[in-house]
Design goal:
The protein is an alpha+beta fold. It is built from 3 helices and 7 strands.
Length: about 190
């Protein structure tokens, strides 16, 4: 009987050991499953973070481009404080094109808000230089509309001998063209 008792005890210990081993494997699988789920969650969060980071970087680039465009547009608005610089820019543009340029007047209506700045000017030079100047002036950042435009060639007058008739003749040498114009600068703010 003693052998049977030892056999039962050994069998009981083996069964308990098998149950403990099964519980250990079950607990190990639960822990591993939780760790796998945490790793999956971290991977998903990292993927979401990368996606959000890319979206943020794209939006940042778009905001920088928008800021640059806004800055350029704001530079295109001539204000009373930037008016001298603006007029100097036009004068320098005329110098670059080798024409004699004079500003006759620069005025606005004086109303608050976006108004037109009216600039009357005259210019002299060869036809190509004046044409280049006008073309460059009309393709600047600010909007320019011509409301008065007179282009003429300078001539000499000669009185016909023995009469009171005065005859117009071309000047000797290259033809000098004169221009009297008035422009509206639409992007003007007081």
């Amino acid at each position: 009987m003693k052998a049977l008792k030892i056999h039962y005890i050994a069998l009981s210990i083996s069964i308990l050991f098998a149950i403990a081993t099964a519980l250990g494997f079950w607990q190990f699988s639960v822990v591993m499953n939780n760790r796998q789920n945490r790793v999956k969650d971290v991977k998903e969060k990292f993927a979401i973070y990368k996606g959000n980071k890319e979206v943020f970087e794209q939006e940042t680039k778009q905001m920088k481009l928008l800021l640059e465009k806004t800055t350029k547009l704001e530079q295109a608005i001539v204000t009373t404080s930037t008016l001298p610089t603006f007029l100097s820019t036009i004068e320098n543009l005329a110098k670059e094109k080798n024409i004699t340029f004079n500003i006759i007047s620069a005025q606005n209506s004086g109303k608050v808000g976006v108004e037109k700045l009216v600039i009357d000017f005259s210019a002299k030079g060869d036809f190509k230089s004046i044409n280049d100047f006008l073309n460059t002036l009309s393709h600047q950042l600010y909007q320019v509309n011509f409301n008065k435009f007179v282009l003429f060639a300078e001539v000499d007058t000669v009185q016909v001998p023995g009469t009171t008739i005065v005859k117009v003749v071309p000047k000797a040498g290259p033809i000098i063209w004169g221009l009297t114009a008035s422009i509206d600068v639409v992007s003007f703010s007081i």
